[in-house]
Specification:
single chain; 223 residues; alpha+beta; seven-stranded antiparallel beta sheet; 5 helices; five-stranded mixed beta sheet
Length: 223
């Protein structure tokens, strides 16, 4: 349970630079050595999740997991690996990607936020842009998350996706059939939170003066 919570917080902070100074390293250790994972957590974030502060005076504390227990260590990862019987090497890897579950998925459009400069009724203009999201769809992921699969035939079209990490994508939506093409743009962010939940955010700019945002959730509802 703690590891799922830890992963969830990692994903919520993925907007930070991946190699930002101060990111906490998680060393997963057992007899024979450790595997080291670079997280997007600051020391204060990890302290909140763990409920325990790192050792006083430790400048680069490492979060150590062994037999399901999590503790802080002031030792460098090379020494931690030696303590567990390793060779003194612990190369950093990224936190493993979440694998979504195949099955029936359903999308819902949550709260919309309309900018103060938007004309009346602009919220309704989003309906054709978001059409199809609330349709149930069968998804076969082939073991890899990609937002194009959750929306294929059941949601906004014309989104060009770019992978930020294996769990996070950004997308730009095209509107080729609108007379105001080039004056309406939509930027998407899609993040898989756990094997049965994907959170997407869309920010739409209309004529460069009206900004509208919405939250779109996709959840697995069955096999």
């Amino acid at each position: 349970m703690f590891k799922l919570l830890l992963r969830g917080l990692f994903l919520s902070l993925l907007g930070a630079p991946l190699l930002a100074e101060g990111n906490v390293v998680l060393a997963e250790c057992d007899e024979g050595g450790c595997s080291c994972l670079l997280t997007d957590l600051s020391i204060s974030d990890a302290t909140i999740v763990l409920g325990q502060a790192p050792p006083a005076g430790a400048t680069d504390p490492v979060l150590v997991e062994s037999d399901g227990e999590y503790t802080w260590s002031a030792l460098p990862v090379e020494d931690i690996d030696l303590v567990f019987g390793g060779t003194g090497e612990c190369l950093l890897a990224l936190f493993p990607a979440i694998v979504p579950l195949d099955g029936s998925w359903l999308g819902t459009v949550g709260e919309r936020v309309v900018g103060a400069n938007c004309p009346a009724g602009v919220s309704g203009m989003l309906d054709p842009m978001l059409a199809g999201i609330n349709e149930r769809r069968q998804v076969v992921w082939d073991g890899v998350f990609h937002p194009v699969k959750i929306g294929d035939g059941h949601g906004p079209s014309g989104i060009v996706w770019t992978m930020i990490t294996e769990d996070r994508f950004s997308g730009v939506q095209q509107f080729p059939n609108l007379g105001t093409a080039g004056r309406i743009s939509a930027n998407w962010t899609s993040i898989i939170k756990d094997p049965e939940y994907i959170r997407s955010n869309v920010d739409i700019s209309i004529l460069g003066i009206c900004d509208v945002s919405a939250v779109v959730d996709f959840r697995r509802t069955g096999p």
